[in-house]
Amino acid sequence: MLNQNHSKNPFQDRVRVRVCGILQENGKILLLKHNSIGPAGYLWSPPGGGVEFGEHITETLKKEFAEETNLHVEVGEYLFTNEYIGGNHHAIELFFEVKRPSGNLKLGSDPELSAEKQILTEVRFFSAEDLASLPENAIHNAFNAAGARDKITELRGLITFKH
Questions:
Q1: CB neighbourhood size of 110 (10 A)
Q2: Which of 38, 67, 118, 147 has the most neighbouring CB atoms within 10 Å?
Q3: Which pTM was predicted?
Q4: pLDDT digit string, tens, across residues 136-145
């Protein structure tokens, strides 16, 4: 039975379909830091968000990038699907390559959360060395599935991660 307590985190106790974008520029990958997520107390993850009913996934991805990073992107190749099941969370995430035709990088916000409950705290590009230095439990699990984390765009198919 699902918990009907609406004061809980809006991302818990339901299957959530998300779309995420991998933006690579000058050999670096763009990530957002989410506080209060995961065993490390924070999680570095690609920009993206939940797909709303009636919204096309490419439009969701463009909207999420603009909200979270101030960047306007073009959606490129579909890469892989990541399924995460852990505790009260179940997410199905579709990953795409994206390119930036315009915009200046700036940390935005998540409109699904109130101003006092924002979890996005930093946005930056990571080199292969930077990615490799992050603790395994502080980066999106898809990066660990890729072997060398900077090779995430080489993943294909379905990745399932149960915690």
A1: 17
A2: 38
A3: 0.89
A4: 999 999 999 9
